[in-house]
Specification:
This protein has 338 residues and is of the alpha/beta class. It folds into three domains: 26 residues; 204 residues, D-Maltodextrin-Binding Protein, domain 2, CATH 3.40.190.10; 98 residues, D-Maltodextrin-Binding Protein, domain 2 (3-Layer(aba) Sandwich). Helix content is 48%, strand content 18%. The chain contains 15 helices and ten strands. The protein has a five-stranded mixed sheet, sandwiched between helices. The longest helix is centred in the first third of the chain and has 25 residues. The radius of gyration is 24 Å and the shape is globular. It starts with a helix and ends with a helix. 45% of the residues are buried.
């Protein structure tokens, strides 16, 4: 083969390789990168971890970074500042901040659809609490104001005509210190989330009051974003909601798979604790059957804010945007029918 022909072959091979590499890059679409800010790492947010671990976000063309806000107000602040595109925390913060002249936002999905607190105790003298009045004479540890737990405690005591400091006492503490208050006997009842409830039960505690059973539907944790982001990125919003809807359906049909995700998210917890907590969240429906925001549950959450003066009055604005949830539900219902 002549030098001229050899150069032509080499030139062809180089060109072919370049085109092939270029084509392969074109065939692999770039993932849309977004950040979701959660209140903190909590087992009650299992749908978020399922969507991430099982690749549901990836299937929607998303690369998701999850960060912790450290509080309901701080989570929404991360969204409004642009440090995150979506928030997972108390959804009423959207209404509270709006009343104060903050950035307009919307609640576009339900992550926890009932009050996800359980009152637990190690004290054998504490009776089962069948109504709010039964809290009389007890000292209750709960998260600090303005956390939802504090507001719920105040409202529950008010429903039982109990005066705080006289008929019942509250010990406001940080999230990590609630169980310690029971062990140190600074309180004899504690309001806890999962997995704290199941951890305590494994250590000999018992549940004396179930908030999800007593309160029913309640917008405890929502998926939020700004109105501006919805207007500018409706497709991304839809894909996020799709992935989370799929995760909720997964949790309902694959218990073992859901426990496996929970174990990976909380490697220091025993499998028994994860199983107990997951079973409780499914049975008491704190883990939603769908991402759709229930209007009645939303109104109850707003009314609680008014009752404990986190809101001056019930807002006239509509902060719920269920368009994306309805499309996601329709998508997976159609897939199920095929």
């Amino acid at each position: 083969m002549s030098i001229k022909k050899t150069l032509l072959v080499v030139s062809f091979l180089v060109s072919f390789t370049f085109v092939s590499c270029t084509d392969s890059k074109i065939e692999s679409p770039k993932l849309t990168e977004i950040t979701i800010c959660q209140w903190g790492q909590a087992l009650i947010y299992l749908p978020l971890y399922i969507a991430q671990e099982k690749g549901f976000f990836g299937d929607e063309g998303l690369k998701v970074k999850i960060i912790n806000g450290g509080g309901d107000d701080l989570t929404w602040a991360a969204v409004t500042s642009g440090n995150a595109q979506f928030g997972i925390a108390d959804p009423t913060m959207v209404a509270i901040q709006d009343e104060q002249g903050g950035v307009p936002g919307k609640v576009i999905g339900s992550i926890v659809s009932r009050v996800s607190f359980w009152a637990i105790t190690f004290d054998k003298k504490v009776r089962q609490i069948k109504s709010p009045v039964d809290f009389r004479g007890n000292t209750v540890a709960c998260f600090k104001f303005p956390n939802t737990a504090h507001a719920l405690a105040l409202k529950t005591f008010k429903n039982g005509n109990l005066e705080v400091g006289k008929d019942v006492n509250i010990v406001p503490v940080n999230y990590e210190a609630v169980l310690a208050q029971l062990k140190n006997k600074e309180a004899n009842i504690a309001m806890v989330l999962e997995p704290a409830a199941s951890i305590a039960i494994e250590q000999g505690a018992r549940i004396v009051y179930s908030y999800p059973e007593d309160w029913g539907s309640f917008s405890f944790t929502g998926l939020t974003t700004t109105q501006k982001y919805i207007d500018e990125n409706p497709d991304v919003v839809q894909r996020v909601v799709n992935a989370l809807e799929r995760a909720m359906r997964f949790a309902r049909v694959d218990f073992d798979g859901t426990v496996s995700v929970g174990k990976k998210a909380f490697p220091d917890l025993s499998e028994n604790v994860i199983k107990m907590a997951t079973k409780r969240m499914l049975e008491e429906k704190t883990l939603p059957e769908s991402i759709l925001v229930d209007e009645n549950g939303w109104l109850k959450a707003l009314q609680l804010c008014v009752d404990v003066e986190k809101l001056k009055k019930l807002p006239e604005k509509n902060f719920i945007d269920n368009r994306f949830a309805l499309k996601a539900i329709d998508k997976y219902e159609n897939i199920k029918k095929k």
